[in-house]
Q: What sequence folds into this?
């Protein structure tokens, strides 16, 4: 099943495809500064890093993503009038237990939640997506507790 070369003999054309598994994945720690970043654009790039889609070894059924540390989560931007119009809802499970909160109130109550909710919505809704979401670490302010891991600062504008 090969092709004939110049001498008329059949040359072998075997190709191998390598697939990542849990033992061969190289996880890295990345640091992202969310100051003055638009929430949706920031979240889509972080979701790509958390899933591992930026790596040539990306495999859809394996957690190939990196650990992403996000600092200054309270300083994200929303465009237009989304601070008053964008609604976040949660449900307690009881009748009449639906609670709706606008973005400004959520930022005041839990400043890191807006980034977490946006990224979680862009991950798969499976056990793999839950495992990938655990690789996201969001912090309010410029300090974080993952100093010993030496996260590499990454410029989001360098990512397509």
A:
């Amino acid at each position: 099943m090969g092709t004939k070369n110049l001498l008329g003999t059949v040359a072998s054309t075997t190709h191998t495809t390598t697939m990542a598994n849990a033992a061969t994945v190289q996880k890295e720690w990345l640091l992202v500064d969310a100051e003055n970043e638009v929430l949706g654009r920031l979240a889509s790039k972080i979701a790509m890093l958390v899933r591992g889609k930026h790596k040539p070894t990306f495999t859809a059924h394996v957690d190939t993503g990196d650990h992403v540390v996000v600092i200054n989560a309270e300083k994200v931007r929303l465009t237009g009038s989304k601070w008053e119009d964008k609604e976040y809802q949660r449900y307690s499970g009881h009748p009449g237990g639906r609670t709706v909160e606008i973005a400004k109130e959520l930022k005041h109550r839990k400043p890191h939640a807006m980034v977490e909710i946006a990224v979680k919505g862009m991950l798969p809704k499976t056990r793999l997506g839950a495992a990938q979401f655990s690789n996201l670490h969001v912090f309010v302010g410029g300090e974080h507790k993952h100093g010993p891991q030496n996260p590499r600062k990454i410029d989001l504008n360098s990512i397509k």
